[in-house]
From TrEMBL:
CDD domains (alphabetical): CBM9_like_3 (cd09620)
GO biological process per UniProt: carbohydrate catabolic process
Organism: Prevotella fusca JCM 17724
Span of domain Carbohydrate-binding: 19-216
Name assigned to this protein: Carbohydrate-binding domain-containing protein
GO molecular function: carbohydrate binding; hydrolase activity, hydrolyzing O-glycosyl compounds
Organism ancestry: Bacteria, Pseudomonadati, Bacteroidota, Bacteroidia, Bacteroidales
Transmembrane region(s): none
Family annotation (Pfam families): CBM9_2
Length: 217
């Protein structure tokens, strides 16, 4: 099981657009999402890396991606963003309250749900989604497939209040199980990558048994 220490950044208000520079100034390290769990059927492995930090009451995320095409047709939150060029952060704040899937396509359209398994998941209320600040280097407007080598970035500020079935106040000192993914179900080269490996016979990200561990400093 992979483990990461999540650095605390001493800052008050943070906008998603400022995260890349903030991470650079504070030496936040990047980690690859490069485990091709189902290589026989889905061998394509785009270049993907993420960085994560926190400011006590919010998680800060930055993804950097280079791939052979991009797709961003989902323009409304809670839509099928996994069909697009998509980065995902699944996490379980505790053992009882299920896990959250925070999925975002390359234009910052978000899907956030909670549950204990793939089925019967509960969508985040609008108020929780509206609190997530997003910045996307490709802009926020939907577009169809763009082929050829593409490079893009995505940054998110996720307040702890967005985790709508938990009462989280300060992340410092907490250990949370989590995994990071990259997918693109309806891109020209469908792919399913993970940070922590998944030992299952077919693609499935809804598997908390294979989450890694995040230690919030």
């Amino acid at each position: 099981m992979k483990q990461l220490e999540v650095k605390l950044l001493e800052c008050q208000q943070v906008k998603a657009v400022d995260i890349p520079a903030l991470f650079k100034d504070n030496g936040v390290s990047y980690n690859k999402i490069d485990t091709v769990d189902w290589a026989a059927e889905y061998p394509y492995c785009p270049s993907v890396e993420f960085a994560i930090a926190h400011k006590g009451d919010a998680i800060l995320l930055h993804y950097r991606v280079e791939e052979d095409c991009v797709r961003a047709e989902a323009g409304t939150d809670l839509g099928p963003v996994w069909q697009d060029s998509c980065c995902e952060f699944f996490c379980s704040p505790d053992e009882e309250g299920g896990y959250y899937n925070l999925e975002s396509n390359c234009i910052g359209t978000v899907l956030l749900c909670n549950g204990k398994g793939r089925e019967n998941r509960t969508h985040a209320p609008a108020a929780a989604l509206e609190q997530i600040d997003r910045w996307a280097s490709l802009g926020r407007e939907p577009f169809e497939m763009r082929k050829g080598r593409q490079t893009w970035e995505l940054a998110l500020v996720v307040p702890v209040s967005s985790y709508f079935r938990h009462t989280l106040e300060n992340l410092s000192g907490k250990t949370i199980r989590a995994n990071f993914y990259k997918c693109g179900d309806k891109t020209s080269q469908p792919h399913f990558l993970s940070w922590n490996p998944i030992a299952l016979p077919s693609p499935d990200f809804h598997c908390p048994a294979f989450f890694g561990e995040l230690k919030f400093l």
